[in-house]
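Suppose a colleague, Dr. K., hands you the sequence of a protein chain of 391 amino acids and asks what its three-dimensional shape might be. Before reaching for any lab equipment, you can write down a predicted structure in token form. Begin with the sequence itself:
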Amino acid sequence: SFAVGVPKYRTDSEPSETRQSADTSAHSWVAQLAATTGLVGLGAFVAIAVVGMVVVVRSGFQPIAWAGAGMLAAFLGAGLTTVNGVGSEWLFWASVGAIGAVTARPLDGSQGITSPANNRAARRRGSQRPSLKIAGRDLVGVACVALGMVAALSTLTALDASHAAKASQQARLQGRSPQAIEFGLRATRGDQGRPDYWDTLGLAYVEAQRLNDAALAFRRASELAPYDVRYLGDLARAYLELAQKGDTAAGRRARDAAETAVRADPNNPQAQFTRALVMQVTDDLPEALRSAERALALDPQSMTDALWVTATQIELASGHPTEAVSVARQGLAVFGATKRTIPLRMELARALAASGGRSDALHELDIALSIQPNDPSVLQLRAQINAGSGS
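The predicted structure, expressed as tokens, is then:
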């Protein structure tokens, strides 16, 4: 489908929001249908629209049919350059459905019922000559309606799973990890094919520090959507936490997940950031630096503050304090004086201290304290720099 193909053909010159998102719909019904149904599907779709318009013109003045034609034309016109997805495609089918319902002719080849008089005459004919064919058609119609109702009822489980996934997210953000896990399990049991539900469950496990279970959930999400590097990123981070707790095999798995993410979507800065973080934690600084520089080159105005912090740390650990200062200042220019910049200001202070700018380092920490007074980590680093150690 469209979402599967985007990472393969994503270039390094796209707008930043396009490079980082998991696009699921094209900005055109033509492109969307061609990508997801092929030329045959696109031709069938166009044929439906053409036949619908022809039928409206031939049927004379029927207000409902012409209203449907207007909505159909509006959808097709706007949809040439607008996102096409489930949220808007119903307009097309509602339009052609209305046209079909108003202009439909009986199967016996007559010209249809266009007036109350014809309608009464048809009812009289029908009452005088019962037709087995009509009865058969009615039976088929009832069967179709019954099947439709069964299909509609079958979606209730999926709807419950969606609500459970949302409840899991809310419980996790409120620090209620047992409830988050319970709702996450309910979501994955109700609709096992949705990778975002497995990712939600994995995040709930992380909140509860059940990292092995989290890794299993993230791995399932990445198996269902191997083209979406967000799930591979969560999987790599879960493995990193396990590695930092002494699981040596988890470090290798984290590297495998990071490499898979870069192969799947090489021009996505999030994939490169994941690889940089993994290489940093597993002490492969040259590769960490390569991926960090690539991530920033792909998204030089990145709003991901952790990327700037990681890139600064890698430059400093690689023995490049001047470059670390430059990266940190670029990040601060993006975010300004906000609380989220405090970790980056701390890394900038370390880099300044390492390059001999002790007073500048203290100045950056003073700015951090003006944003977040009495921050213990900032005060501790300030004391270390004053004592002659910025590590």
